[in-house]
Design goal:
Layout: H1 2-23, E1 28-30, E2 42-46, E3 49-53, E4 59-60, E5 62-68, E6 75-81, H2 88-91, E7 103-111, E8 114-121, E9 126-132, E10 141-146, E11 153-157, E12 160-165, E13 170-175, E14 188-192, E15 204-214, E16 217-225, E17 232-238, E18 246-251, E19 261-263, E20 269-276, E21 282-292, E22 295-298, E23 307-309, E24 331-334, E25 350-352, E26 356-360, E27 370-374, E28 382-386, E29 396-404, E30 411-420, E31 427-436, E32 441-448, E33 458-464, E34 479-490, E35 498-500, E36 508-509, E37 517-520, E38 535-538, E39 543-551, E40 559-566, E41 571-578, E42 581-588, E43 595-602, E44 606-614, E45 621-627, E46 634-635, E47 640-641, E48 653-660, E49 667-675
Length: 676
Amino acid sequence: MIKMVKIGSIIMVLLATCMLSKSANAATATNPYIWADVPDQDVIRVGNVYYMSSTTMHMNPGVPIMKSYDLVNWEIVNYVYDTLESNDAQTLSNGKNEYGKGSWASSLRYNNGTYYVCFSSSTAGRTYIYQTKDIENGPWTRSVIQGTYHDMSLMFDNGRVFMVHGNSNISIVELTADATAIKSGGLNKTLITNAGSIAGSGGLGAEGSHFQKINGKYYLFLISWPSGGMRTELCYRSDTIDGTYTGKVVLKDSGIAQGGIVDTPNGKWYGMLFQDSGSVGRIPYIVPVTWSDGWPVFGASGKVPSSVALEAQGDTSKKIYASDEFNSTASDSELMENGGFENSAVTPWTNTGSAKISLNSQEYSSGSKSLLVQNRKNTGDGPKQILTGKVKALETYTFSAKVKYTTGPDTKQFNLCIQNGASYQGISILGSSTITKGQWGTIQGTYTLPANADLSQNFIFVETNYVASPNQTNDLMDFYVDDISFKTSTAKLPLVWQWNHNPDNANWSLTAKSGYLRLTTGKVSSSILDARNTLTQRTFGPTCSGNVAVEIGGMKDGDYAGLCAFQSKYGLVGVKMSGNSKSIVMVNASSGSAVEVASVPVTQNRVYFKLYCDFKNRTDKAYFYYSLDGTNWTSIGNTLQMSYTLPHFMGYRFALFNYATKSTGGYVDFDYFRIQ
């Protein structure tokens, strides 16, 4: 019966989607074009496709990459990282957290076939630059710069790379040509002093840099919020990158500001800005831009229009929030590239130590080529492939490799290894095999990446067994490798979901019970705010609701599980287990302290919860309901007066949770999450 309900729901969603797509014939956008929390957006165009990055701070995976064909209808296609760091603040350990911190204000750029995303983290005290050739699939490689470069913006200009950053005083620093580090002796100076003064004095100094080169001139877009004023869009320009910048206010309307501009394939321009909008968060607006005397002119008569004509109509069914039936199935994902060595070059394989690697068409296990390894000076010298950004802690991988050698002892042990981190102390032997001379042998097995693995640098390599004083004949022989594989088989959550802080991957599953999301408690917590594996996605306006079905038979004494309107001053409806008894409770933390407002005993093991949010005219109220059959709903508790708080610095989110207050190991199974 339950699965029939699921099928019926899916059919209804598909019909609604078809009706929506067919009715949206007019190429017109209504502001805000996304009524949800999408702050600090940076938008680029590559061909006829637009990509956008945004800030999600303490949520993981982090820095969403969104895609659109019309600047209005967006879908999430990737994230830049799964987790940024794994210290106490990121794992909600030892009383620490990174609410409102994490990654801030990313800069997204495309240059010569490579996508770049740059951002800083005040938690880590670092600035990160990620690169990829494939923005929708990765993998990403990362570089770390010590120190936080506030609200930076990348610029690629005539073979050089720059980063503009700062608050009030806006500076520029030159990076190395590969955009991985600060360039020694490169350009490093203040471009503009007290940049916000053109809008007024006091308040928030100018920040939020978006640095662009347009028709040979350099444009720097900033936001300022002077005392007694509102969020205001500024623009500075110069004829040279490090020359004299003159500026003006380009938009002062309803606090809509902060962002750059982007052009269409037909040469029209739009500003991509956002507005603080109460508890739903910071919501994006699209603003037409024209040009006058080399200056961008935003809006119509200084106002942001409520509707904007578009050149192209995208898919109106694309959203950055979605229902989920938790029916994801596991699939294999191969992480090795060119593992069969059938490409025309050895890349992305490189060498460790002094080893020389080359393609060989005389010896191969399958296909027509293998990789020949020569010139070894140490037993660890051999072929390697970097997996940084591809592997995850606590994920299990299946590996295999074919190895052959033709000179030396009759048998020899070969190892397939992984190094996690920059130090050799992070080396683990994945598997070993004793190979017979002149024959292809196989190394194979499974490997689970440790919870505390260093993910800053990861690579696979092949070696012979360690010997302190290796012999050229017995230990450093040439050898061939072929058919190297390193794959994972996992069920993945849709990209609309993000975990609050780093997830504990050992304690959630989409496969423990088919068609359900299982959340298992892995730590004792004082409240939902320091609990791990709280799964979230954005609420949205003008109104929205989300409901869940959850099976609670696996809970333990002291556990809480259910559905939350998640922010610092949260509200939730869920099940509390005390001893051997369960009750449905509503908790309201709008005062800053959590208060259990209502409690209803429950004896069945399947219950339903619903949350309704009203953001119209910044009403910002949330209402909570429960059901024993999924059809008849009963209001519970009182109304949550939602409020946007700076400690979290994020709009309210739907959140699915299960946390323990006494002992770990209890679990619940969410059957679905459905939005309206």
